From TrEMBL:
InterPro entries named among the record's database cross-references: Thioredoxin, Thioredoxin-like_sf, Thioredoxin_CS, Thioredoxin_domain
Species per Swiss-Prot/TrEMBL record: Actinophytocola xanthii
Alphabetical keyword list: Disulfide bond, Electron transport, Redox-active center, Transport
CDD domains referenced in this protein's UniProt entry, alphabetically: TRX_family
Protein name: Thioredoxin
GO-annotated molecular function: protein-disulfide reductase activity
Amino acid sequence: MLDAVTDETFARDVLTHDRPVLVEFWADWCGPCRMVTPVLEQIAAERAGELTIRSINADENPATARDHTVLSLPTMILFRDGRPVRTFVGAKPKARLLADLDEALAQRPFSCS
């Protein structure tokens, strides 16, 4: 099971985390969410040292979903250094999701120099 965050804990558990965090926005009524969650649980176990994966129920935490313009479920947003760096929408097979994550994680963070 993925660790859940809420509107109240999102900043602490995601935005100030010391490594990249993938957040799954989901809802109880969302069939594709039920398909992607087990895949994310596998990835969380396999990548535990380099990536943190959290989940947030968009129906129960509408402020965070609104703040990140979540319009469709499931939506997964990858955060690095407190900023969203990539958004993934819809259920994807594990291989495709891993490829997308690896591509996003390989990109250099923005620099203000």
